[in-house]
Amino acid sequence: MNIAPPPGGIPVVLVTGFLGSGKTTLLARLLRRPELARSAVIINEFGAVGLDHDLIERADDDVVELAGGCVCCSQRGELGQTLARLRERREAGSVAAFERVLIETTGLADPAPILRDFLADAWLADTYRFDGVITTVDAVHGLGTLEREPEARAQAAFADRLLLTKADVAPSAAIDALRERLAALNPGVVPLAVAAGEVAPEALFGAAVRDPRATREQVERWLGARGFVGWRIAASEPNRHGPDIRAQVLVREAPLPAAVFRGFFDLLLEARRDDLLRVKGLVNIAGAPGPLLVHGVQGSFEPLLPLAGWPGGDRRTRLVFITRGISGAWIEGLLRSFE
User: Fold this and answer.
1) What is the dihedral of CA 182, 185, 190, 196, to 10 degrees?
2) What confidence tens digit (pLDDT) does each residue in 136-167 have?
3) Residue 18 belongs to some domain of the structure
4) What is the DSSP string of 56-94?
5) What is the pLDDT of residue 317?
6) Considering only CA atoms, which of 264, 322, 332, 262 is closest in space to residue 298?
7) Is residue 4 assigned to a domain?
């Protein structure tokens, strides 16, 4: 039996968040939704399958059937190997033909290496596509956690969707302060308050920008650069949290010659590869018929993807950088040295 993946590939979503922030509660709630019944779940820690016992059937094998046709497995090796095994079993018909993969990380995980390994595995590209990072942040304790824990800051900075969990029991002043801090760390994403893991799936998924059918709204939401002006957010505050992690955007009005773009990125990677936590955006290359989608994590980049048209007619190059210890002025100066 050979079951083809959906057009554009099976979407893979990373669910991350610090210890006790509600990742497992969120997944348990989502997997009860009929529209998510055909999902696969990868738990990024052996023996840590903490989903509701009514949802999961325990088994000795690393892949088990869940009620509603879901699949769950504990990651016992590299992520690519786990996804490859799921693909083989899907094609053989030994598991349901799942239509989405949700990866739950450990609470102390830095999402960068996980995404980097996924993007670097060319063997998975014909089956899967990356669809976004969902980060849970505890509305009660999140502010202190962000202050103390670098992993929590990385998780929030990487997010395509930010969920404020326990919002029903957190004081409003704490929620307001947390929103302000998250806006400084990741201004392109508006946090969504949730209680007991209840959230509509359509608010979390659908940033399928590598799908040729992606809409303008999906691309713009994935890019998340609307709150930026140059290297600063609209409120004219530097977009940073502490001295380590920053989110910044590079904007160019005129098309970039291909040689300039290539030289800029080659030198950027040579000099600061490990500190480029994530790069995403649209680039206008001179002579190209449309925008090219850029997406990379710590030096591992997906192939440049031509899009059918410019979202909303905005033809500017807009590249969002999430970096550790790199200033926007340094990146800007590097690009200018090639122009």
Assistant:
1) -40
2) 999 999 999 998 888 899 899 888 889 999 98
3) yes
4) B---SSSEEEBGGG-EEEE--S-HHHHHHHHHHHHHHTS
5) 92
6) 322
7) no
